[in-house]
TrEMBL record:
Transmembrane intervals: 267-284, 290-308, 320-340
Protein name: Glycosyl transferase family 2
Keyword Nuclease on entry: no
Single GO term (MF): transferase activity
Origin species: Quadrisphaera granulorum
UniProt keyword Transferase, yes or no: yes
InterPro entries (UniProt xref): Glyco_trans_2-like, Glycosyltransf_2, Nucleotide-diphossugar_trans
Origin: domain of life: Bacteria
Length: 353
């Protein structure tokens, strides 16, 4: 029997009470795992969207990752009012450590990850459980739609929701059910996640993508557009740049572990950064040549940005769309080289130890 078949048939074991006076907790079918750090402005909307779910018994395990903005206090108050909410404290800043801390506490047969700055659609948990019960899928995930509240934020969201900008990342724009290599907020058989050891704590970023590459050895990952999650995008171009720089920094580590997961689209931003740095160096002596080298990229970004702008949400700052597109590409590329440099330094340190 495969690990996937075994996990979908048996479900996750329920932890034993640690003391004789602790009553057994009622069984749940789904554990919703929510890592959170300084999410005071969004965590209540997230919890409300989960608590409104019907058709399945569930618990919410929120892992507070060292919040200092009042999130921890708010979570404690919500947990006091609703026994479906369980708060776990994991103070070290690390998403994979937080996910693993929540996994250790999970009682549900199915594990559904939800971001603290997102909301899920009606019926999300019941539909995810239904698809997982089919026994065919190692994971199921849906469409991640970026939303924002400011004009610049809506420009950022327009870029993140466009196939022209995110390319092969189906979960940003897909409308048809299909097998994919990754979903950002996965729904999994809990026992299968445990059998795989949870999330790799050495991968600080791209931990979800890395996990999915291990998961694919056990079965297929299904993208189902009936599952929709609204995810708060960054509200400025600078914040988007920093976010994608962080994303890019995790890719070299994942590529070393899973070289077959690397695609041409992953190499395009790092190569773009090399090209732009080369143009800047040339510009120190021959600014005209450097300008001629950069102009085609600027024209291309502007043209793509104009196309994205046609379907941008009302109130979006359309002039900021090309800037957001460039920030995403350059940020990811810069992060990639930073991650590769850090990887080489660690390898050197191990050799010299």
């Amino acid at each position: 029997m495969s690990a996937l078949t075994d996990a979908t048939r048996t479900g996750a074991p329920t932890p034993e009470p640690t003391g004789a006076q602790v009553p057994a907790l009622p069984a749940v079918e789904v554990t919703v795992l929510v890592p959170a750090r300084d999410e005071l402005g969004s965590i209540e909307r997230c919890l409300d969207s989960i608590l409104a779910q019907q058709g399945v018994d569930f618990e919410i395990v929120v892992v507070d990752n060292g919040s200092t903005d009042g999130t921890a206090e708010l979570l404690a108050a919500r947990a006091d009012r609703d026994p479906r909410i369980v708060v776990v404290h994991q103070p070290e800043p690390s998403i994979p450590l937080s996910l693993n801390a929540g996994l250790a506490r999970a009682r549900g047969r199915w594990l559904v990850r939800v971001d603290a700055h997102s909301t899920i659609s009606d019926g999300y948990l019941a539909h995810a459980a239904k698809r997982l019960r089919e026994g065919r899928w190692a994971a199921v995930g849906g469409r991640k739609t970026a939303v924002a509240r400011t004009s610049r934020g809506r420009a950022v969201a327009a870029v993140l929701n466009s196939k022209l900008a995110v390319g092969g990342s189906t979960y940003h724009w897909g409308t048809e059910e299909q097998v994919v290599d990754h979903v950002p907020f996965g729904c999994y058989p809990t026992e299968l996640v445990r059998q795989l050891g949870g999330w790799d704590t050495e991968i600080a970023n791209n931990e979800d993508f890395e996990f999915d590459q291990r998961l694919r050895r056990e079965g297929e990952i299904l993208f189902d557009p009936a599952l929709t999650i609204d995810w708060d995008s960054r509200e400025s171009v600078g914040a988007l740049y920093r976010q994608y720089r962080r994303y890019g920094s995790g890719k070299p580590g994942v590529a070393v572990r899973h070289p077959r997961s690397l695609r041409l689209r992953h190499l395009a931003p790092p190569l773009l950064v090399v090209y732009l740095v080369g143009a800047a160096v040339v510009g120190l002596r021959r600014p005209g040549v450097a300008l001629a080298a950069v102009v085609p990229y600027a024209i291309g970004v502007t043209a793509v940005g104009a196309r994205i702008g046609r379907s941008a949400p009302p109130g979006a700052d359309r002039a900021a769309i090309p800037l957001a597109l460039a920030a995403m590409q350059v940020g990811w590329g810069v992060g990639f080289w930073r991650g590769a440099t850090a990887l080489l330094r660690r390898a050197g340190s191990r050799r010299n130890a």
